[in-house]
Amino acid sequence: MVADYKATHPTRGDVMLTGDTAIVTWVSLVPGKGEPIASCDVFVYRDGHWRALYSQHSTAEI
pLDDT per residue over 2-54, tens digit each? Predict the structure, then answer.
């Protein structure tokens, strides 16, 4: 199931860790399925858990 999902929902992503902060960025790459979507999510590690601080998604040109 995971391989099928990845084949139909390809993404190009990156994770950057700085101390207790993680920044996750990705761009969807589904040709013919509308405009690509870019995403940025920011997390902070507190009390043994990753907690979401910020999330933004928008259409993007590649």
Answer: 777 677 666 778 999 999 999 999 888 766 666 778 889 999 999 999 999 99
Cβ contact 51:43 at 8 Å: yes
Distance CA 44, CA 30 (A): 30
42 closest CA partner among 58, 25, 57, 28: 25
How would you classify the pairing of strands 21-28 and 37-46? antiparallel
Q: Find all residues with CB under 8 Å of 32, minimum gap 6, and list them.
A: none
Fold of the 2-59 domain: Nuclear Transport Factor 2; Chain: A, (3.10.450)
